[in-house]
Structures are given as structure tokens and as C-alpha cells.
User: Fold Putative competence-damage inducible protein from Clostridium moutaii.
Amino acid sequence: MKAEILCVGTEILLGDIVNTNAQFISKGLADLGIEVYHQSVVGDNPKRLLDELENGFKRSDIIITTGGLGPTPDDLTKETGAKFFNRELILDKNSLDDLKDHFSKMGRSYSKGNNIKQAYFPKESTIFPNPHGTAPGCAIEEKGKTLIILPGPPKEAAPMFTNYVIPLLEKYSSGIIKSKVLRICGIGEGTMAEMASDIINNNTNPTVAPYAKEEDTILRITAEASTENEALNLIKPVEIELRKKFGVNIYGEDDIKMEEVLGKMLIDKNYTISSAESCTGGLIAAKLINYPGISEVFKEGAVTYSNEAKINRLGVKKSTLDKYGAVSYETAKEMAEGIAKTSNTDIGISTTGIAGPDGGSPEKPVGLVYMGLYINGKTQVKKFQYFGSRDTIRRRAAMSALDWIRREIINI
Assistant:
């Protein structure tokens, strides 16, 4: 079966809303073994929407739309779908009762002029309730073609797809496509692809594909099989081979974040930690506190942006700053030691650098970052050179800092 995704909404075309529905739905269809060959976005215009449906069903068996189910006159996805299949719209009493109940719980009355249109559906369609909003979805099936209509807000579209669309589409699934992601830090995309080139080139099922993300790189292993267990059994030996090649460079899998991995390690080993940040401006601390329970070990995060703050809060020597500057090996070292000792933690991490876009020099270019790491009485300093925007440099530096701590804890 071939499917495509059609997102409806002028606000998406204008860039006011990020289209996350297509990504979520694509992943769900892949897990069912239903191939997605086309994605498109159309504004709130019934003629253009009808054209998209006509062209889409020439290519595909299934079209899934999101958006255009609101109470306003320009929300016309159901109406256009009904026109395409030549079906009249009829009032669904259960949907109307749900609508009234929804507004009653909010202490408001529904609009008979506007909201009631959300309870009308193409005749003989399958209706999907929406406990998260006022717009139910539906599916129309006719002559081997299936149109699935979902609301636009992701908090409504995602659970509706999971709870109602997946069970509906399982009958079309001849197999499944399963993926596993290995997350890698400290190695660029080119190096990663070269290290894994023999595995990438010699495997067709599963396939191995390298990708570069903003803060890390990933290897996605994808297998196609008749069952999930069969797919996982195909993935396993390839995963083992990749783990042997990349070792400690692999910090996690699938959707796990670096701060989750490091947070668990710190708590499991009962290592207390504090951070002193200049160029990263608190990003390291912000990432750490994303992990629930990190308060057991994370004692303090200090943003010491000025030289005065480095001196007064961390005890960095004025002579060090005068001689070497804020962005230097020596300053990073004293920052890491200062935050660890004043916070009484096992680990102290520091960052000082030039995030740009201005302020660089031939000796200290934009993107230069020094990091200090104090662990159990020993201090190390590393020099990094990043490229990109100010935000990119800061984020990559914070990620490198967490990864460095992770690697050191593994070796303790």
C-alpha cells in the first residue's frame, strides 16, 4: 500500500506553524509497513484541496489529512472530502453530544452556527472521537481508496492516529518496518560514515544510514519483516557490529538524550556535580535539570559571564585573567576548580569561549571554547573549535561538556 500525507492550513504555508504532524504520521506508517511516497501542504482553499485529493489518489491508496476541521467557514477538509467521494454530510448525534459535553465542562455553550459543523461527517464514514478537542476525525473508504481526516493540532492528531488510525490501517499491513537509532557524540558525520562504510555498503535488509543532527550524529538501522520480532532479530547482529566499531562514542539509542544518560550515571554512582558557565550561559545546567531526580547530585550552576563574576564567585585570579584572558586554558582550569570547591562537589565543569558572531581574533577566533573538568581532585582542560551561529556554537559546546563528563565517569 502507498500512502501520502496532506497537511491543510495556510498558517503552515506561511511558516507560522511547524508541521510536526507529517513526521509523526510518517513514522507510524513506516511501523505498519505502509510506504509514504509523498507529502504536501495546501492552504485553506477548497479548490486547491480538491485538486490535491484528485492528484494524490492517482498516486496513492491512502491519503491522511491533518487540519481544516475547525468551526470557521474556511475549515473545509471534511466538506471537500465528501465532495470528492460524492457523499452528503450528515449529523452524527454522538459527536454532537460529545461537543455539547465538552463545552459544558468548560462552562461555555457551543455555537449552533459554527461549532455544530464539527459534528457533521460524510455519509457512511468511520468517525474518530476526539477527547482532546472539539474536532472529531473520520475515514472514508471506497473502491480501494481510503481518506483519513484528522484535526490539525498535534496534541489532538497524534493520539487520534495512535488510537484509531493505526488499528484501521493494520488490515493493509503486509509487514512492518522497524528502526533502531544509535546516538553518537564526538565524531563528525563524515568520520562516522567512513568508520561504518563496510556495514553501510554491505547491508540491504537491514539498511544502515548515517545522519547529522545539530548536537550529535546518528546511525539508523532499519529492517523490513513480517513481524516486529523478525525485524528486531535482523537488526540485532548489525547493532552488535556497530557497537564494536564505535564503542564509547555511542552514548544512547533511539530518542534518549545525553542529559538522561549522564543524569542516570551521576545518580547511580552518587557523583555530585556543579557547573560554571560563561559562553554557554547556563545551557549545561539547563540540560542537566531536564533529568528528573537530578537534584540528588546537581548542587549548583553558576553563569559567570563577566570577569568580575569569575573572580568573585569562582576565585579565578585577576592575574590569570590579565595575563591569559577570560578565554584561555588557565581560566577554564580555575573556573572548574573554583565551582567544585565552593559547591563542595565531586565534579566541576566549566566553559569559557567566544560564541560570536563578533569578538573573535586570529589568535582566538569565533567558536573557540575552553572547557575545564575537575573530578575527584584532578583537573583537565580541553580546547574546542566550533563553527556555525552563536546558538549552534553554544549548544554544541554544552553537548560536548556533558559527553566529556560521561566518558570520564565511564573510565573511573
Q: What stands out?
A: The chain has a mean pLDDT of 94.
